[in-house]
# Entry
Amino acid sequence: MAFSWQLLSILLFLSAAAALGAAEAESPSRRFADRSISSSDGPPVLLDFDASFRFSSRVAWTFGQAMFRVPWSRLSCSTGADSRHALGGSAFFEQGWSISPNPRRYGVMACYTFGGEFNRGTYVPFSTRRADQYPWWRLDVGSWSAGAAAGWIHADATERAARRDAASTLDALRLEAWAGAGAFIVHVEGGAALNIPFATGSKTGFELRAKLSIGRPFLPVGIVVGYWYIGTGRIAGHHATLGLEFDL
# Structure
């Protein structure tokens, strides 16, 4: 349980820090104070939140992730720099249920993305609302992106242990890659991940995932249905997913 609170604290810290930074950058006193910064340079930060329920015939999971990214034009303070590039970080937590002992995984990663994920125009399509203000930056008729992440993952009770009552733990280097695109209220994305254990003798784990979001990119929230496959360990198998995503 201590681990759960530690990761929850990480998620809350990332979310609060990113939100406060965005609010400060977009406050009325500072918004476009420097007229050299335009909508094409992007928002000061991109925020992504995901929460889902994953289930199979053997095990059910609850999942949460928070990600923040900053366009390169903002990081470099270089007007007109290619804002399709972004750097940031993420933290995630997964809790399994219905098998004993219940598995748990959490981790933190640094990430890089390339794509068109924010509105480069002056107004939200089909409205008079300005697109260069939170939370409307991410609302558009189309979006696309690809990304990669690397970091650390810790897992409890996910590996097959020598004794039936043993809860095997795992610390590993996690590598992820994904790509997606959307138009109006339909967005699709696919990705893969590798978990390379630090301990010798442990097997490298792999995962595949795909999701369909109804609502994005035209709305700030999407209803997500998807598929998740884990290839190794006592949690291996095919899972269906159902959840929500918020992109600001």
In short: Confidence is low (pLDDT under 50) at residues 1-5, 16-36. The chain has two helices and ten strands. The first strand starts at residue 46 and ends at 55. The beta strands are 46-55, 60-71, 85-97, 104-116, 142-159, 168-183, 186-197, 205-214, 221-230, 237-247.
